[in-house]
Amino acid sequence: MKIGRILLETADGPMPRLVSVHPERKLVLDLAAAYRRQLMADGASPRMAVRMAAAQFPGSLTEALETGSAFTDAIARLHAGLDERDGIPLSDVRWLAPVDPPVLRDFNAFKNHEATAPDVWFEVPLFFKINPSTIVGPDESVVWPFGCEHLDYELELGLVIGGSHRDLTPENARQALFGVTVFNDFSARNLLRYEMDGRLGPAKGKDFCTALGPWVVTVDELDLTDLQMRATINGEQWSEGNSGSLVWSIEEILSYASRSEPLVAGEVIGTGTVAGGSGWELGRKLEPGDVVTLTISGIGSLTNTVGKPETGGWRPQARERAMAR
Amino acid sequence: MKIGRILLETADGPMPRLVSVHPERKLVLDLAAAYRRQLMADGASPRMAVRMAAAQFPGSLTEALETGSAFTDAIARLHAGLDERDGIPLSDVRWLAPVDPPVLRDFNAFKNHEATAPDVWFEVPLFFKINPSTIVGPDESVVWPFGCEHLDYELELGLVIGGSHRDLTPENARQALFGVTVFNDFSARNLLRYEMDGRLGPAKGKDFCTALGPWVVTVDELDLTDLQMRATINGEQWSEGNSGSLVWSIEEILSYASRSEPLVAGEVIGTGTVAGGSGWELGRKLEPGDVVTLTISGIGSLTNTVGKPETGGWRPQARERAMAR
Fold first, then answer.
1. A55 and A165 share one domain
2. For a Cys staple, A181 with which of A158, A223, A275, B296, CB 3.0–4.6 Å?
3. A residues 42..81 contacting B (CB < 8 A)
């Protein structure tokens, strides 16, 4: 199944709603609306049907996944009796990022071209964390952060966690995986290079915009070892790769991520960039107004337009080394 | 005011509850219970009073702060007519971490002793992010992560954000700050040193346990430029410092944190370790069973006991450099 989130106009203003996506029928199913209708057909009052539908299908995928298998069980029942009245034409949809993760990590698990990569890159699947407050969805504008002189995309697969797990091993790690989505880890190259000298990892170079979407596809629909990955800028193909070139498997990523710390429902983990999957590797830069589309076979296409450079951000005044020690 | 979270036994099992803390009266006030009682005194039905109290005072400080000034306004009204019947003796309380932050960052804003610190440390207030799923509260056990050979504490001040803000400047940054708490950034020194060679920043060396508490004190009660900070291990003082030795001010931390990315309600930002505020700087290590207490004047004491080393975590098998490029 394919699960997305849309912004729906309501009497209370625009509200996020979970939908299942049916590209072949060119519609999405408003899950709360369909469930409310099903509950009423089974005798629920309108008031209690609304309340139960809001509990099972809130606007947050994280909260929905926290309901456990009740979530997918309820969707399966709705799909068995799919009522076109609850369908919304794909062309009318205003997408949101399909996930609202409580934690956003990004690994470095593909083959890479860095001749100077340190030994630790080959010894453990390294990762860093991104501020999840900076996530955008399909068609949303990409923030061009203050001080950025080289904006870049990164073509990645996003892993969506289905529930709470800890200390997984490659043998049992797949149970943690609900689905996958397209993950564009937008990066400010000059800010990254600058701050990574401080050894605390990416901060302003990554924490401004990560795009996720267009929806989450559950793992039963895909062969995760053979997904074609492609990036086009203004319609021109810049990058191409395949998930089969992962050096650390998805099971190994999940095992290391969960070692002595929990994975939680709704959390998203990027695989890192497929080789050649960024402008940096090609000597190219994004410009304001560029249209960036990442496509992964079996999932779909995630398109974002690069925004205007932000100006007027606060610039720190350097401290005297002698004063600060 | 002082706001904490406790675990309360209910008919639905143990549930988190927000409380205001009154150390001078040796009690906490269960905010949802007090508000329910106030609403009923004003004519609300028991059912609707419970529902409204759960909306204004949920178990999550983040969600409560998302209600805006309604949160502190409601508390002020409750305190004006404080009913001892809603008080719970401090001695009966089982504390939780007072905050459930959607984002957890840690800066490096105090004077430091690293002779070899890179230039960028003195040019911008650097920070990294910690997995907020690993937060513990007062009296909770400290995870000793797999592979850790040098467990350490870090004595820090935690800044709690009150609402959504972006692109703050030192002149207006204080509006973002709801309150402060004690922040113990437990660290696995050998894991940190190892993984930080990979330039992606702290991961397994930090993402296993951060302690917050005992409660959040609102900024109106404190002079943030003169807070005494102290760490004792098994009752012996190891570390001492003062918030006045910050090299980057709290206003500068908030300004940089919010540059081209949002601050959000409930998010927590550590200042970094006060000089001498860790065992690493003193050549000392924590041991299983050690009792670690951090105290900050005007806030309180946060005590945690070090747990047993975890065993049996998954150990990656190194990749051949030639295969991974």
1. no
2. A158
3. none
Residues 6+ apart with CB under 8 A from B197: A118, A119, A120
- Whether A325 has its CB under 8 Å from any CB of chain B: the answer is yes
Q: A-B interface: how many C-beta pairs under 8 angstroms?
A: 199
Measured between alpha carbons, how far is A117 from A109 in angstroms, rounded to an integer? 13
Residues of chain A with C-beta less than 8 angstroms from the C-beta of B261:
131, 133-134, 143, 145, 204, 207-208
ipTM above 0.85, yes or no: yes
The series of mean pLDDT values per 10 residues for chain B, 325 residues long, is 97 97 95 96 97 98 98 96 85 97 97 79 96 98 98 98 98 98 98 94 98 98 98 98 97 98 98 96 97 98 98 94 73
Do both A171 and A84 map to the same domain? no
* A135 and A222 part of one domain: yes
Write out residues 171-230 of B within 8 Å (CB-CB) of A: 194-204, 207-208
Q: Number of folded domains in chain B? A: 2
> Do B22 and B81 sit in the same domain of this protein?
yes
Contact B166, B256 (CB under 8 A): no
CA-nearest residue to B167 within chain A is A313
B89, B117: one domain = no
Asked if residues A16 and A60 have their Cβ atoms less than 8 Å apart, the reply is yes
Question: How far apart, in whole angstroms, are the C-alpha atoms of residue A319 and residue B126?
Answer: 13
User: Where is pLDDT greater, at A116 or A186?
Assistant: A186
Domain of A144 in residue numbering reads as 104-309
